[in-house]
Amino acid sequence: MHPHATRRRARPRRLLATLLALAAAACLGLAPGGPSPDAAPAPAARADTGTGTGPGAGPGHTVSYDRYSLLIDGERTLLQGAEFHYFRLPSPDTWRDVLEKYKAAGFNTVSLYFHWGYHSPKRGVYDFTGVRDVDRLLDVVEDVGLYAVVRPGPYINAETSGGGLPAWLKNVEGRARSSDAGYTAAYREWLTEINRIIVPHQLTRGGPVVLYNVENEYAQNTDAQYMQDLQDLAHAQGVDVPITHNQCCQASWTPTWAEGLGAVDIPGLDDYPQSFECQDADTVWGPWSDGITRRLKDDAPVYAAEYQGGAIDLNNAGYEACRQLTGPAYMKYFYKSNLIKSGATLFSYYMGFGGTNWGYLAQPNDVYTSYDYGAMITEDRQLTGKYDEFKLQSHFLRAASGHLTETDAAAPAEVPAPDNPALETASRVNPRTGARFTLLRHADPPATTDDSAVLDYGDGRRLPVRVDGRDAKVLLSDYPFGGQRLALSSSELMTHTRTGGRDVALLYGRAGEAGRTVLEYGSRPKAEVLAGDADVSYARGRGELTLDYVHEGLTRVRITGGGRPPLLLLLGTDATAAEFWQSADGVLVRGTDLLRDARVRGRTARLRADTGEPGRVEVFTDARRMTVNGAPVRARRTASGSLTAFLPGPRPVRLPELSEPARWRQAAGAPEVAPRFDDSGWKDADSTLHADDHGFHHGSLWYRGRFTATGDETELKLNAITGRRGIYQVWADGRYLGSAQGGVQADSDPPVNEDPGPGTFTLPDAAPGEEVVVSVLVQNMGHNDDWIADDTRFKQPRGLVRAELPGSGADISWKIQGARGGEDLADRKRGPLNTGGLYGERHGWHLPRPPASGDWRRAGPDVAAGTVSWYRTSFRPGLPRGQDTALALRFGEPPAGHRLLMYLNGWNVGQYGAGVGPQRDFTLPAGLLRADGRNTLALAVVAEDDSVVRLPSLVVKGNHRTG
Ligand code: GAL
């Protein structure tokens, strides 16, 4: 169980009140100052793909901060970011794809955990090549034009094995996450390695890194000296951007690392208001928090370091339920409340893309192979409805960041008041520009009613508004942009841009709701409704042009004269607004499934875009020509002053059928159960049965025990710890005795290592003096995390922990076998978490090359209890060039009798089957998958009971023509 799940749910109301009080305290404004508004400093892409003054522009940059915001080169900057785990996407080429998708959603930042255990199979051994090349990752971040928050731990949690601590650390004396000497020496190794890579990528040296996060939710069993040491080391190694920490979760939890020994520059706060109860997605509404980010430190900006962007699937509801739990309604209500109530100007959402727990990356207690997380981008790299909502909100933050990065909470008298108590408002005002941002939502957070009101602005201005169901809006008033001034609007702003001497603004509202927008002019302007319907009126006295309309499709109004530059006003719904994109250069585009980039050079608009089906694209520019993905397309000008073209969709994909047993070969894979199996090369396990002590840290473990029968043996009592979802199986003299669930992380305090009780297995009769050989296959599902920093859970052993022959005086002598080479990796490319110690894994049966051993025959569907069977096949997907086609392996309902491991070209891409989790579709990561060539698939089927193996088929998860 994830520790949050029990702890946060139990939080008393009193603490909620404290949180609210703290948030209110955070609303005390301070003196103004700083650069001009209406500039949205976004990092520019690197010189080879763009221009600008963000990362890549050269050294000499500064990152500083004050109470309001981060300042990059002295310029107020709002960070809108999301978390990304490179280790859950074992394909560096697709890092760029996902990060471009972040950028296209309007994000300007990515938050990156670095995973110690992923890089270090053995003390003193570190690998930063191939899928572990994080130097390349930071280059890609810079190329794409994002800022980076780096989070090298050493502890990261993240539902990954050991919370990111390497398994060899279990054998190191000294409490992890403390200043104990043994642990200190160990983590200094890691930080020295990773800081060496990070430091040159800091913004101060021309790179993308703007913040450095130490530790993770370090709130229990804390050691301030350790927090200080981490920072001293970072500074000594050249870290000179502000240091941050992500605190969890309750007001009562101290320290917050805002002051005293171990304090960081910008303390951040994590918040997961929706919990992880995805199975109750229909009803859950903010049980863990009211969605307010507290101010932890007076002279630092408010940083929502990990704000819930999805959920782990604690109860096997499936990630679509988690996506619903954390869907657009939640995003609107909680994210907008955060923005206005706390004045936060740094945000990072956990996760933007979750990825895959390939190999043994998963921490066993909370997650299974997929770490999709119900995020805005699926594990298959596809965009969802949540992505659309992020697009609306992130583009707004970007467009308005010049105003939003310095706001004070408005005094109650200054807040537009609704005349209906069912609704409530709160406002923030930029003290220099006067721009006002008003949050409108239900007064009772979970209310689902449809309520309307008139907002009274206190100066004679009134605005009809409506909140239908769980929703929230940020309404602008007195908002200057480009050459215009928005007096007020009941529509929300997505973005605005300036092109060819005119302004274009895109506002939106819920479909079918009425909207009103009022603009200020010196004299009556000319307003032409080009598409859709809007009533236009002008009040000469106030100089106000009022548009009344219903949000429906896309209404276009061209406004000229009135003493201002021309304005094209686009009034859409959530859905039509979400069809828009705005490139880093500010080019506004409608259409395509993904706009990776758009620039106007001379008279040509150059787009890089993905299309999932044929359709129109429209570019709001005065350019005359268009290229898409480098090729010219036929484009024409429109009455709205835009350029439009028709783009083709992708070619269809035809996949080979894999589910026929006839195309697979099969071999038996558990020779270890035979009494005469040669285990002379195995390690002696008499001194300790614990696998980690022998350097076998991940995946399946084999034990072989021998005893000389006294004749009194009737049963064998065993206890193995596997982590949740693990099993172990037992044979005697080649006969299968059965299986049992392995021990898990206990929730008791202190945790019990030997839970549940031992498995008892009936032994076959043996005559006195006869040698009996026992074989045991134990699944190690991964290592517990160390969330409470008590060391005990993390250091819980794996493998057999007890073996007894009740009633017999015989001693069992044990040998152990695990992944080939143990800590001295046999396969450095795929790394320490890819394989365990199954016979086929030790002999390379999972690899693309033909196996040099094993008796391979035509495959059949039946597997017998107490067997390990390997299946292999190869296929050519023949995916069309110039397209990004996402493939997955689809199995049936998880079977009762067996579980299996699957390998694509030697990479362990998942575990499926009895008790492993609800997952049926397994992502085949592009990059590991050869789109055009030959691929090898191998399955290792571990059968507890007689059962039928249903072989998987290939399915398309997404197909796009792409640049
Ligand atoms: C946070 C933690 C993350 C992750 C998340 C839940 O508390 O910092 O690493 O575990 O919870 O997915």
Automatic annotation (TrEMBL):
<keyword id="KW-0326">Glycosidase</keyword>
<dbReference type="Pfam" id="PF13364">
    <property type="entry name" value="BetaGal_ABD2"/>
</dbReference>
<dbReference type="Pfam" id="PF13363">
    <property type="entry name" value="BetaGal_dom3"/>
</dbReference>
<keyword id="KW-0378">Hydrolase</keyword>
<feature type="region of interest" description="Disordered">
    <location>
        <begin position="35"/>
        <end position="61"/>
    </location>
</feature>
<dbReference type="InterPro" id="IPR006311">
    <property type="entry name" value="TAT_signal"/>
</dbReference>
<dbReference type="Pfam" id="PF10435">
    <property type="entry name" value="BetaGal_dom2"/>
</dbReference>
<protein>
    <recommendedName>
        <fullName>beta-galactosidase</fullName>
        <ecNumber>3.2.1.23</ecNumber>
    </recommendedName>
</protein>
<dbReference type="InterPro" id="IPR025300">
    <property type="entry name" value="BetaGal_jelly_roll_dom"/>
</dbReference>
<feature type="compositionally biased region" description="Low complexity">
    <location>
        <begin position="41"/>
        <end position="50"/>
    </location>
</feature>
<keyword id="KW-0325">Glycoprotein</keyword>
<dbReference type="InterPro" id="IPR037110">
    <property type="entry name" value="Betagal_dom2_sf"/>
</dbReference>
<dbReference type="InterPro" id="IPR025972">
    <property type="entry name" value="BetaGal_dom3"/>
</dbReference>
<feature type="domain" description="Beta-galactosidase">
    <location>
        <begin position="403"/>
        <end position="580"/>
    </location>
</feature>
<dbReference type="InterPro" id="IPR031330">
    <property type="entry name" value="Gly_Hdrlase_35_cat"/>
</dbReference>
<dbReference type="InterPro" id="IPR001944">
    <property type="entry name" value="Glycoside_Hdrlase_35"/>
</dbReference>
<comment type="similarity">
    <text>Belongs to the glycosyl hydrolase 35 family.</text>
</comment>
<dbReference type="InterPro" id="IPR017853">
    <property type="entry name" value="GH"/>
</dbReference>
<feature type="signal peptide">
    <location>
        <begin position="1"/>
        <end position="31"/>
    </location>
</feature>
<keyword id="KW-0732">Signal</keyword>
<dbReference type="InterPro" id="IPR008979">
    <property type="entry name" value="Galactose-bd-like_sf"/>
</dbReference>
<dbReference type="InterPro" id="IPR036833">
    <property type="entry name" value="BetaGal_dom3_sf"/>
</dbReference>
<dbReference type="Pfam" id="PF01301">
    <property type="entry name" value="Glyco_hydro_35"/>
</dbReference>
<dbReference type="InterPro" id="IPR018954">
    <property type="entry name" value="Betagal_dom2"/>
</dbReference>
